[in-house]
Amino acid sequence: MSFLDRIFRPPSARIEAVGTETAAQLAAIHASAFARAWSPLEFERLLGERGVIGDGLFLGRETRPVGFALSRIVLDEAEILTIAIRKEARGRGHARPLLKQHLEGLSRKGVAKVHLEVEEGNAPALALYRRLGFKEIGRRPAYYLKPDGTRVAAVTMALDL
């Protein structure tokens, strides 16, 4: 492999289930992506709940995730609670395969419909969700509090699997 191949070729990625042992790592990733970060304890509690599943994104030989998707399943529906990629790994095409595999896992568990909400100004996330077939089903005005004190709407979306 040439020097340029190593620079421009993204490292191989794998997606694996994550559990409570990754709570601190997931919290750190979440903190890099959201103004209101969840604590390691919140992740530990969520990952310990029945019906909550998490998938981690691992690059190359990394043993620590660089991204993750977390969902809660209730009967035949699921809600994506959060998805995040570490800042230095964003914009490299990792979110799509992570979310696609996460959705496939939800489908294998009998989920027929997936819901999520996203800040209306999060153009990369909205584009990703739309590319994967999510449709806007509603809005929650002034739902998210921004660091500067302003509020922005949440877009609610759904996907039939």
TrEMBL record:
Database matches in Pfam families: Acetyltransf_1 (PF00583)
Annotated keywords: Acyltransferase, Transferase
Keyword Ubl conjugation: no
Name of this chain's protein: GNAT family N-acetyltransferase
Xref: PROSITE patterns: GNAT
Organism (species): Microvirga alba
InterPro entries: Acyl_CoA_acyltransferase (IPR016181), GNAT_dom (IPR000182), YpeA/RimI_acetyltransf (IPR050680)
The N-acetyltransferase domain, residue ranges: 13-161
GO molecular function: acyltransferase activity, transferring groups other than amino-acyl groups
Gene3D superfamilies: 3.40.630.30
